Amino acid sequence: MEDIFKPQSLTIKQLFGNADALYQIPRYQRPYSWGDEQLEKLWDDIVDAKDNDPNYFLGSVITAKPQDASNYIDVVDGQQRLTTLLILLCVYRDLYPNINNNILESDPFAIDSNTIKTSIKFNDRFQRLRLKTHSNHETDFNNIVLKDGASTKHKRPLKKDLRNDEDPKFKFINTAAFFTQKLMDLGEAEAGAFINYLFNSVKIIRIDCQSVSFAIKLFQVLNDRGLDLSNSDLIKSYLIGRIHKLYDDDEVKRQKEDQFMDDWKFCSNIAIDTEESLNELFVMYEYYLLGDNPKKSLYDELVALLEHKDPNDAISEFKSFLSHYKNNVYNRKDAMMYGFWYLPWAMYWRTIVLTALNSNYPDYEEFLKVFKRYYYLNWIAGNTLSKIKQTSFNIIKLIKEKKGIKFITAELEKHLADNVIDRAIDNLDKDIYFEKWCKPLLFMIEYNQQDNPQFFEIWDRTIQTEHILPRAFAKNDDWAFFNDVETIDNWMNTGANLTLLSGSKNLAASNDGFDNKMKAYDGTGNHSRTDDKITSFKITQNLVNDYKASKYNKQWNIESMNARWVWFCEEVENLLEIDLSEIKETQLEM
Description:
The protein contains 27 helices and 10 strands. The chain is an alpha/beta fold. The protein folds into 4 domains: 5-224, no CATH class; 230-331, no CATH class; 334-416, no CATH class; 438-584, no CATH class. Strands 1-8-3-4-2-7 form a 6-stranded mixed β-sheet, sandwiched between helices. The chain has a two-stranded antiparallel sheet with strand order 5-6. Strands 9-10 form a two-stranded antiparallel sheet. Strand 5 and strand 6 (128-129) form a beta hairpin.
């Protein structure tokens, strides 16, 4: 009986030179992705080994017989190294066409250009490639690397071009340029010694498997022992392995795999479009399916959840889940969704919102309002993830069970009744300037002033939280009035004295007196760094409008600050549906 797998110890010369050395990258593999870090390590390790060790072990390659009749074998693991080595050989072919010609008679193990060329293409009448890359990347690979003379003509690409993991074109260019420079630095004679060592003394274990299913299983077992794979890679390999296990007919198997890969590509593109990793998206999907705190690894949990599903149904459902994320969360442009993006616990709030979308929850908009209020009150109250984690999983269950909005609201109110609202109110009545939720809260108040607001990034340094009365007011005589207000320090960093400004206007206003500040806000000041337009923030325009209307005698004084405090409290009451009557009545006094 034929062995289910067969390991072989091969030199690089045998790996690319034996009669059965015809490899292809199957569709389920990720595109070529090696960058400078991996290239430098490979190069340095071999150079160091050449100087110190008679032999060097480069690792393992797992192959499998493809599902269709072919002389090529699928590379299940090891495509990055094989592709990198093939690019190196192409650079040798183009850069040093006469490599080792001067020592061939004296050294029978010397590697010449003919050996290199037949390691790139099997030198029979069909000129078959030793390694066929992804079918949708073959043209780029041929034009950049395989075509005679092509591999040494490239400049190193820009870093931004190398960030696209789905299009390996620039990775091909980068690797070719990397090896071109390295071999030029060595010079032809030393490069000849290097290729001799690489071909004759560097070895790989090639493990040939009789089926793709077993190869993937072996791949997963080896990963548990340290292979560098992501959870999404393992999930993909598991589901493809299930396809090969479920279907006997080769044509059906191929169709199912093609369908799966099309859906997987769709999901990968959503990850790119939403600036998220597939791993993180799978975590959200895991939370959604479980409705509970995971007890095992992401891979193990999803295998248990998906093992009885048809793989194509599983990826189709994941695709639908991600489509909701892209279309109805990431791309939703309104004040309701904007407020969510500032919250901590992103994995949890996104999963809960997606659960409502995926479950077609009937009171979705009302639920968003209730749920966002719950998270914000916990955040402002100072609670951490441990406080809201189990409740978050409970919400997922309640939504999937289609519990009514009144029931879910009552459940959340029970948790808020546990001093959460009281502590939130207490914290709102203190210095808020240094709190992580301060700017998000001001942003949400701002959104409520506009009909079609634009999203403000929390890390946008051009947007500042502005002190109307400057913290360094004592240095400016225009603010001398406040020197006699004993409690002013207690109000400096509260909602009574904070607004939003762009960076340039904030810099222009700085510690100026109130008149100059209003001109900076309005864009009519003479300061060289002040732009000539009124601030775009409505909550700051309100100050300018009051000033122009001669309200509070065009001063920022006790009366105006007290009025701003009442306004701030009313805005927060509207946002969070809490009663701030007690703190709203607090007054700044002389």
